[in-house]
Amino acid sequence: MIQYILRRCLYALPLLMGVNILTFVLFFIVNSPEDMARMQLGQKHVTPAAIQNWKQQHGYDLPLLWNDTQDNSKKLTETIFYQKSVGLFLLDFGVSDSGRDMSTDIKQRMWPSLALALPSLILGLTVNICVALMMVLFRNTYLELGSMVLCVMLMSISSLFYIIGGQFYIGKVLKLVPISGYTDGFEALKFMVLPVIIGVVSGIGSGARWYRTLFLEETEKDYVRTARAKGLSETQVLFKHVLKNAMIPILTGVVVVLPLLFMGSLIMESFFSIPGLGSYTIDAINSQDFAIVRAMVFLGSLLYIIGLLLTDISYTLVDPRVTLS
Description:
Layout: H1 2-30, H2 33-41, H3 48-58, H4 74-77, H5 80-84, H6 102-137, H7 142-156, H8 159-173, H9 189-219, H10 222-229, H11 234-245, H12 247-263, H13 266-271, H14 277-287, H15 290-318
Helix pairs in contact: 1-15, 2-3, 6-7, 6-9, 6-12, 7-9, 8-9, 10-11, 12-15, 14-15
């Protein structure tokens, strides 16, 4: 198993390097430092001196990959690639274009994102699996038909409708929870109730239908027929056999949302004024702070790769045969 984990880790390294290089190309070659300066200073009446001054202030006046004006190792270190991209591998995000320490900002903003995303993930996964198991248990009945119609209706509604409707009815009309905002400590719970509920409800339609498909596929296999022939009830078959054997595709689905635990939800955090990493990214895009956007792209890729590694490890715990592949 250790060799399997090491092999997966080695697979992840070139992938992460490729993401870093691709990000560098997009931000510094396709979109040159001169273009970034013009976006920050304004497209009209920008002098070459003003562009050069902006580049010097932000460290974008260096050569991209190779500095002929320096000696020895400084030919590599005194470049934009080394100073802006290599440090990302050490999680040294540097300073944003506005002069803020991005590592400090990320450490502060990751907790509100976790406070929102973690309950949404756990509750959403539990609700979706329970609804899917109920539909499989009562398959070929009006209950399953009604549940499928309800799931399709929930899928057809935009997530913005859930957010705006929830804020208006629950927050403004019923006044059960605040419409938006955030605070530290246990008082943050009252600000998290509404976005968590909306996150869970908006995902029931697609989530329940997907898990239902997984469970129905498992119910047609031979081991399920054998379990039924031995006299096990349908509930025992579903919870003891079908659910256990469907864990691998369930884990595959969970890994897709793992980066959101830290990166946060862009739309949800913006509408509810939650100071997480999602709103941090949106603010950086609006203010054209390319350093923050570049760091968030790399961090999101890193978290996704870590999620894939954790999924591969969990596969070996659910099904030891995976290590043989």
